Every structure is written in structure tokens, then in C-alpha cells.
Amino acid sequence: MSQRVRRAIVGITAAVIAVLGLAQPALAHGFSSTVYVNVASGDEGRIRTTLQLEYDLFVVSTADYEKDDSLFKAGTAAFDAGDKDAQEAALDAHKASAVSYVTKRFSVASGGKACSPAQVGAFAMTQREGVPYAGLTLDWTCAEGDDDHTVRGGLFPDAEGYVKGTKTIVTYDVDGRSGSAALDAEHPSFSISQTWYERFWEFFRLGAEHLLTGIDHILFLLALIAGSRRPREIVLAATSFTLAHSVTFMLAALGVVDVPSRVVEPVIALSIAVVAGWYLWRIWRRRGHATDIETSGDSHFSLDRAGWTRLGVVFCFGLVHGLGFAGALGIDAAWSWTLLWSLLVFNVGIEAVQLAIIALVFPLLIVLRRRSPAAGLWATGAISAGVAAMGMVWFVQRAFGL
């Protein structure tokens, strides 16, 4: 292979990865928001909803839409000061604007007829993953004689320009029906009387979309694929990653483990750079023998020392990625089998996309390596170089808040 072709492979691959990483910042972690809603039976046949909304986003969006400049000034000052009492006071002083903003984008209906909302109590501040959230409780008066309640969520839409891809995670326990649902712009509503398979499909779809729109997780997977020398290695690496992130995903989503996102997100970025850089170091050290197997060994898995070491590194980083996956849901409701199954289905959605990417990319890599080992080495090296560079850029951005 000529030097010119090699440089072209490296240049094109690095450019594609850079475009993927930099052209979609809104799809990476930290540029979207999640609204959390609990729906329960209230007094005198009402429906009670308790919403939790990201405080600074709530203030800015409400002030902008309701033309309430004084809320913006008081709310942002309280946010900058980190004063919980001042944050609650700012929202309470402007509750007409705040409640109006919410009820124009979030609603409950019964039998196709809209229910009437009324605020219950004052705003209450809490935190999720170190981020201030404002709590708002509403009681909805609905028409009598119909228990087919529909919840619709459209808070913080893309059109406002502040965040992209807002998710609304709903847990409910109404009239003997309990479960959870995930709402977004494409699927803004659900019925409490929905079937179990409709409910679980929502979480499967949410898991699949989270991996597809999480370019950092996709690049990590590409780094695993590029550095795998044979099918056995990518299968074991993917299995190790799956087992690791499944453990921390479940523990974090259920509130057993709580690690701030300001720690999780930089480590995820660093993991991308390390896994990609590991393969680059092997290429630099072994040159054309980078894909050679040092020894097959007698174990069932037949991995050499480099393979086992890489597997351990992938498992450790998989634990951190699980915390990142859990951040997409942030569910910390009380334990229930319904919630557990919803989380498992979300995780299955992630795995389905991961396996699809491996099934699509790795066979192509195997064919390239067999037909032209040099071209395969340069192609995987170029992929790893681009991924490693992107991982370091993200690490610096996330670690230093750039």
C-alpha cells in the first residue's frame, strides 16, 4: 500500500470521527434534560402529579416564554449563589408564570377530556446527580366515571433552543394500575391503561435511542471493535462491557449507588481515549504484528495476556458507562418489579443496538484484514487515532467545564 493511500485512510477516518463528535454536541451527555413525574391517586377522585424539573432550565424557559424578566433575574441570581431557599422563593414569588408554563406543556386527560390543574403547596428544591431540581405538585380534577387517564408531556421542547431531546420519565400508581413510561417529542403521551408490552416497548426504544444518540458510547464501541483481533475477542469484550454496565446501571437507576455526573462524564470520555490509545500503543510497539496472538493458552476462552488485560480494562470502564446510562433515566423510586422490568428492557434496548453495530462493522473489518493485512492495520489505526483524539477533547471539556 502506498504512503499516499495510507495518509488518505488516516485523514478521512479522523475527519469523519471529528465531524461526528463535534457536529452533534447536543446529542452527547449534558445537553439534554430529563423531567421526572410521579402520578398517583389524589383526594376526592383527583389525580396528583409531582413533577421535578431542572431548576435553571425551568427558570430560563419560563421567563422567556412568559415574558417574566424579574423571574429571570431573581431565579438566576439564586442559582448562581447556590441558595436553595432563594431558589424556592423566586419560584413561589412567580408561581403564576411557573405554573402557567408547565400546564401549557404538561397535561392530564380523562376519557378524552382535559382535567383542570391546581397547584398544591409551594415549590420544593431537591437535587439529582448534583443538579438542582424544582418540585411542583399539581392536583387534576377530571370528569367522573372514566378511569382511562392519559398523560401528555412536552416540557422544554427543542424549539426553545436551550436543550435538545428532553425526556419525561413517568412512574404511576393509579386505580390499581402501576408502572412507568418514557415520553419524548415523538412519543409525547401514554395511557395509564396501556398494556404491559406497550409500556416495555417504550423503554426498549428509549434504550436503543440513547445508545444511537450517544456518540461517546458509539465511539467507545468502535474502539473495542478496532482493537479486537478475532471474533472471540470482540464477543468477550462486548460481554464484559455489558455485564459491567448492567450492574452499575441497575444500582444507580435504583438509587443504591450515586456518583455525580461531573465525575462520571469525564471518566467516560477518558475511557474512550484509553481503549483506543491502547491499540495505538500496540501498533507502535509491534508494527505489522499488532494483530498477532502471543499464545492461545489452554483455557476455554483462549485469550493471551494482552487479551485478558484488555478484558479487565473494558470491564472497569463498563462500570462507569453504566452510571452514564443510568443518568438517562435517573429513576430513584421505591423498588418494584414493574420498575425493575422497565430498567431491564431499557438495558436490552441498549444491547440490541450495540450488537447490531458489532454485527455490521466487525465482519467488514475481518474481511479487510484477510484481503489486505496492511490496509486493515492502517484502517483500524486511523479509527483508533480519531477516537482517541475525540475522547481526549471530550475529557478536557468535561473535566474543566469548557
What does this structure look like?
The protein contains 12 helices and 11 strands. The chain has helices at residues 3-22, 55-66, 69-81, 84-93, 95-103, 196-213, 215-227, 231-253, 261-286, 305-326, 337-371, 373-400, and strands spanning 34-41, 47-54, 106-110, 113-114, 116-119, 124-128, 131-141, 149-153, 167-174, 177-183, 189-191. Helix 1 (3-22) runs parallel beside helix 12 and helix 2 (55-66) runs antiparallel to helix 3. It is elongated.
Question: Topology, please?
Answer:
Blueprint: H1 3-22, E1 34-41, E2 47-54, H2 55-66, H3 69-81, H4 84-93, H5 95-103, E3 106-110, E4 113-114, E5 116-119, E6 124-128, E7 131-141, E8 149-153, E9 167-174, E10 177-183, E11 189-191, H6 196-213, H7 215-227, H8 231-253, H9 261-286, H10 305-326, H11 337-371, H12 373-400
Parallel strand pairs: 1-9
Antiparallel strand pairs: 1-2, 2-7, 3-4, 3-8, 5-7, 6-7, 8-11, 9-10
Helix pairs in contact: 1-12, 2-3, 2-5, 3-4, 6-11, 7-9, 7-11, 7-12, 8-10, 8-11, 9-10, 9-12, 11-12
